[in-house]
């Protein structure tokens, strides 16, 4: 059974940093691209970042480019999102998602909540 | 990167068909047959319903279908059922390893 478990969320002040993690199991981790998608409270989905199986292709939404860094450790079956210079508008539930045929998301975690507030 | 445009809400009665549109630009929906649709029930993670414009993942009902014309993709749900009531999001590849979602559509089954 595919499982994606996010962690690392919490309350953080504007301008500070936070690192999210996603622990994966139930599939061959290094065969698939992985993604971060976020959802602000009561709002829609927003794609944040994606990373290919070998970290050779990486993409970011304009809203986070230059502030967030995605990475993965295939030996640890883990995905990460380093978030710097956090803003109030980064407040959201952050989902980790497994790629399907590269550009789609077939499995999602339950999310980790990030709240940016003073 | 502006969000794809979806109607805020649509509604239909059980048994009817509804269509949700998703309008992008020539830089995303219009350039790639890489459009997907997700269903999200309240408090739950999204579920992939359609990929590559019109393909259904294993286990998704054939009542769900997708299409695309120019810069606009569409999701059609036929034989509407109460369990279809949810939020629906389109998503498209937008080049340079980026993806973009629509603003979401709330489907109400009357």
Architecture overview:
In chain A, strands 2, 4, 5, 6, 9, 10 and 11 form a seven-stranded mixed sheet that branches. In chain A, strands 1-3-8-7 form a four-stranded antiparallel sheet, with no helix packed on it. Chain A has strands at 3-7, 10-12, 18-25, 34-39, 45-51, 58-60, 68-73, 78-83, 92-100, 104-108, 112-116. Helices cover 0% and strands 53% of the residues of chain A. Chain A is mainly beta. Chain B is mostly beta strands. Chain B has strands spanning 9-12, 18-23, 35-40, 47-50, 64-69, 72-77, 86-93, 99-101, 105-109. At the A-B interface, β5, β6 and β10 of A face β3, β7 and β8 of B.
Topology:
The complex is a heterodimer of chains A (118) and B (110).
Chain A: E1 3-7, E2 10-12, E3 18-25, E4 34-39, E5 45-51, E6 58-60, E7 68-73, E8 78-83, E9 92-100, E10 104-108, E11 112-116
Parallel strand pairs in A: 2-11
Antiparallel strand pairs in A: 1-3, 3-8, 4-5, 4-9, 5-6, 7-8, 9-10, 9-11
Chain B: E1 9-12, E2 18-23, E3 35-40, E4 47-50, E5 64-69, E6 72-77, E7 86-93, E8 99-101, E9 105-109
Parallel strand pairs in B: 1-9
Antiparallel strand pairs in B: 2-6, 3-4, 3-7, 5-6, 7-8, 7-9
Mean of the pLDDT scores of chain A? 97
Please tell me how large the radius of gyration of chain A is: 13 Å
Largest sheet features of chain B:
6 strands, mixed
End-to-end CA span of chain A: 40 Å
Helix-strand makeup class of chain A: mainly beta
Total DSSP helices of chain B: 0
Order of helices and strands of chain B: EEEEEEEEE
Quantity of strands of chain B, as a count: 9
Amino-to-carboxy terminus distance of chain B: 34 Å
Q: Count interface residues per chain for the largest interface.
A: A-B, 25 and 25 residues
The residue fraction in helices of chain B comes out at: under 10%
The residue-averaged pLDDT of chain B reads 96
Q: Count of DSSP helices of chain A?
A: 0
**Which ranges of chain B are low-confidence, i.e. pLDDT below 50, for 5 or more consecutive residues?**
none
Q: Can you summarize the main beta sheet of chain A?
A: 7 strands, mixed
How large is the share of residues in beta strands of chain B?
35-45%
Shape of chain A: globular
> What portion of residues of chain A is helical?
under 10%
Shape of chain B: globular
User: How would you classify the helix and strand content of chain B by structural class?
Assistant: mainly beta
